[in-house]
């Protein structure tokens, strides 16, 4: 009877756990669909547009053709060997899903697969987080961690529907790899080690952030060795993972021989060599005893580590091993990128986060995070050391670069869940408080019980511990005080959980679910207005320009122009060629005549600029302009000087006080062309920079003609005049279709002012 009851209870727990997982999967997916519900099924941001374009190429060509794809529509006139300069994991996974669905009779459009890719994989991320946390504590903590991971804004920010970027699958693979590594480290299982290596290979194929795994796992092993916790199962786990994972990762064309020829990977190689020596020493120690062995061992390890580090520096100096990249140095020195690689510092997601952003992305978990780390530190098992190393490293890196909040969020969810789980283990246990008897003194005694045969019960000969309990009758006042205290603490944290769900839903729906190409705004009366100027401009390019037309724009918009307008661009978001990007920056910061010569030398037909002055959009090109100047100055310091764009008082101005260099620059002229004339008094109000612009500041255009301006002047496109027309009357040559443009201007003047919500 007792056994059947236990089986029934286990079956109920299994069913309940399955239902909880179904709910977690449902919440993880549904919370990421606000962008589709409020807008439409569309690819977001910038990089996802290239990933989508590459995926479309993959499903319409063979995998071999995809790996050898040369894209002549980007980085004109250089082009791009696309197959050898990307991580193909995201595209190949989407392509495989597309082919499988077609095989079973579900011909779903590849765009919808790409849009819903990240929400689908977020459920698997929650499952991996559960398995990872269960290895650290128990299933209850694992379920909490999975639920947190499913809705945490820090992860949702890069995994909403339409956010078809590498991180959409990379965080899933990150947690699966760590899950199998912890299992392998605890058990020494070759199977778990091999699975960790295979998912590491999958991670390498999907995201450049795989270097985090490459260094964190060796760091874990190195710390365990220093703590004197070396075991044979640690040797089996690490050597299997490193050997299989490294050989597999070298099959990715973009990675190649980097695992054995790059400083980013040398820590893993060094620990692999170190653990061989430690294993040899452990074997010798088992054969030879004595204090002298310890001395010899420590001296040998010191010499070997010194020789290894010296050899690394020598090989790096000789050029056999690639040095650390600029992105690595920028993680340790926040000013390094701004001084040496301004193109890295110009990216908004590479900036240090403000302190409120930690709370914004993780809410109350941000203060449970150190509590969970402290609780793990008290136990300090081998697997807990991994969590401590992960927490320390990611806490620092996330404080340097806001993008790395994405890698910090999983460990925050894990440690926060462990802290709450330990608290609930105590404060949700009302069994003692509600009983009529409470333990006064508990003593453990060891009893030997002889085997006895009875007619109704068989007992095995076994030693067991029994508790000798001396009961006492507590006062009802003390009992109710205990119940009240536990109820208050438990209800407080249940309320925290409710507020966490509310916060995550609010942040996700209002801040992380808006596609960059369609921006929500508010009219003064509170009604919703959608700003669709980007797609309007890209559609115009697609329908009104030649198929081989070349478009010059700042690199931010390259992927979108290639994906939506299907036109050739000079630069895009790959940012692999700093000099080529600097050419565009130089053209934008040069006087009109010189800019015309630069652009004509690169066969440019159209120039696209983003101007937010009429709308109050702070992400326009004039606010990015100084980065264009800095990047160009790094290549041509004698021709482009940042200080020439600041006033004598060191101010960056665009009104009457702006410098002559600023007013003569192509960016200034293209942004403010005819802008003052749309206002009745002829004085334009730049709402982004809160400055007044008149026709006296904006000179005429002699080498460019305006061919398109979006409804709210957000996107403006200019065509380079042909050399034959430059000798004519510039005033006549610069005229555009007044029927169209005057209508735009009238609508803009009469249209209620919008308040852009960023």
Structural notes for this entry:
The protein has 2 domains: 2-262 and 322-424, no CATH class; 528-756, Rossmann fold. β7, α27 (558-565) and β8 form a beta-alpha-beta unit. The protein starts with a helix and ends with a strand. The longest helix has 36 residues, at 476-511. It is globular. Helix content is 59%, strand content 9%. By secondary structure, the chain is of the alpha+beta class. The strands form 5 sheets. A 5-stranded mixed beta sheet has the order 8-7-9-13-12, sandwiched between helices. The protein contains 34 helices and 14 strands. It comes from Kluyveromyces lactis (strain ATCC 8585 / CBS 2359 / DSM 70799 / NBRC 1267 / NRRL Y-1140 / WM37) (Yeast). Residues 15-414 form the Oligosaccharyl transferase STT3 N-terminal domain.
